[in-house]
Amino acid sequence: MKNIFYLLIASFLFTNCKSVYITPTGDFNESKAAAAPDYSKSFYWAALPTKADEADKTPKGVEDAQANAKVDVFFLHPTIYTGQKGDDQWNGPVNDPALNKRVDESTIRFQASIFNGVGKVYAPRYRQAHINAYYVPAEASKEVFDLAYTDLKNAFQYYLDNYNNGRPIIIASHSQGTTHSRRLVKEFFDGTELQKQFVAGYLVGIPVLKDEFDNIPVCQTPSETGCFTSWRTFESGFTPKSYTSDKVAVTNPLTWTTDATAVGKSQNKGAILRKINKVYDELCSAKIVPESGILWADKPKFFGSFLIKDPNYHIADFNFYYMNVRENAQERAAAFLAKQ
Question: Which ranges of 17-63 would DSSP assign to H, the alpha helix?
Fold first, then answer.
């Protein structure tokens, strides 16, 4: 029975996050949304360098370097409000212990933790849009996403006013987090005085155009700073019918270039799947498909992987390349600091 349980867990690892149980009904009504978070209270931060949280976790052999870090990382988490029992509003309540636990034990532990080797990690809770907001017409979901972005904008402004103190900044995000980080980077960094503090962006899991920003280019080398990286991962040979364009930025997270040459799994320094202390060396490859704006990865092999049928590896965009991202963030930060 135990083995069957783990096989079932593996089968869910890379599944699309579309709602299974509850779909919000009715139109968005801000008056029915949960109260806005108060970012002066640590409760409303999923990660802060001043408190113990899941972003402090590390795989075996690496250390949490936040205490002495000279760089900050502002992390915008993906959609965790995915239609489980009780997820019946258009925006997730930030004071819901069950939802917060799901956020902390998934994206904060397995994604935000990537960056504790380079900077002090700040990850705000926010009234995230329900996953089904992505599956309704844009005009129907605009206010839902706007409310979520308002929280993140307020969190970032609070961070700037109370925590940053002029330190270099990395922006990291996944999926819905990237939906919002595109706006955040545009508003706060692109052509502003704050751009001088911008180390790099890891804007992953949602299409980001090559010319998304006026003054912030796509990174072309592993040590380039003041630029952004982005990718969306699918099984090699599969091209989704929608959201494909040669105008979308794609970075190879094994070489940190935009070269379309296939890169073998031997250059993959380690993936993290269901256990933070278990590193899978050389798990999968990476190849940019420039005409489609996506990244291909050969199907990984691990216990239970034969059950993976979905060619969309979205949920593992960061985790397939966990150690490569971790080391690259350190490299870019070092290059940025060397220029100061």
Answer: none
Q: Domain holding 111: CATH number?
A: 3.40.50
Q: Averaged in consecutive runs of 10 residues, what is the pLDDT profile of the chain (340 residues)?
A: 34 40 68 86 98 97 97 98 83 95 98 98 98 91 96 98 98 98 98 98 98 98 98 96 88 98 98 94 97 96 85 96 98 97
Write the pLDDT tens digit of every residue in 56-114.
999 999 999 999 999 999 999 999 999 887 777 899 999 999 999 999 999 999 999 99
Which DSSP helix (H) or strand (E) runs through 76? strand 72-76
Region of residue 165 (phi > 0: left; psi between -120 and 50: alpha; otherwise: beta):
left
Residues 177/106/276/255 CA torsion (nearest 10 deg): -20
Here the tokens at position 142 are 């605009």
Q: Specify the pairing of strand 271-272 against strand 233-235.
A: unpaired
Beta strand 169-174 with 72-76 is parallel
pLDDT at 309: 86
DSSP state of 209: B
In a domain, 1, yes or no: no
Number of domains in the chain: 1
Measured in whole angstroms, the distance separating CA 128 from the mean position of its chain's CA atoms is 14
Residue 133, domain member (yes or no): yes
Domain residue limits at 28: 21-233+313-339
Nearest to 247 by CA among 205, 291, 296, 202: 291
Burial annotation 36-72 (CB, 10 A radius, 16+ → b, else e): ebebeeeebbbbbbeeebbbbbbbeeeeebbeebebb
What's the rounded Cα separation, in Å, for the pair 232 and 315? Answer: 10
